[in-house]
Sequence to fold (145 residues):
Amino acid sequence: MGDASFAYTIVNQTPTVETYRRLRVAAGLSPKTVEASERGLPNTLFAVQLLIGDETVGMGRVVGDGGTFFQVVDIAVLPKYQGRGLGKVIMAEIAGFIAREVPESGYVSLLADGQAYRLYQQYGFEMTAPASVGMGFKKVASDGA
Fold:
């Protein structure tokens, strides 16, 4: 899959804190602190990174309890590589993990920003509204730190 004009390598490994934070911001996702990243990344159930040479240009992760609930998170591709099918490569890797590892009755969720729902629908994800809607709570620093 993807654009044949460049070669990429698929690595099923959790990104480093530095790579994770860089990719999130570069791809337009919310920034995460070093502390939050250091705590969260070791709890990854499955991760995929796409490398061009030595540079990680895309990533995605699955988090959860490993049995009943799973969430697809951190789908990010550097802007200069967007629109070339790399999101599909990432999701195909994640779909393979879901097929192999999620038990019967396990529930896999994700939050789709903007038009990204179109990508996720290709992998069996469906809109849940109006039966259920996504909600979130984000802890922010109260002292400006």
Residues 9-121 form a domain with the Aminopeptidase fold (CATH 3.40.630.30). The CA atoms of residues 57 and 78 lie 5 Å apart. The longest strand covers residues 55-64. The beta strands are 9-11, 46-52, 55-64, 69-77, 107-110.
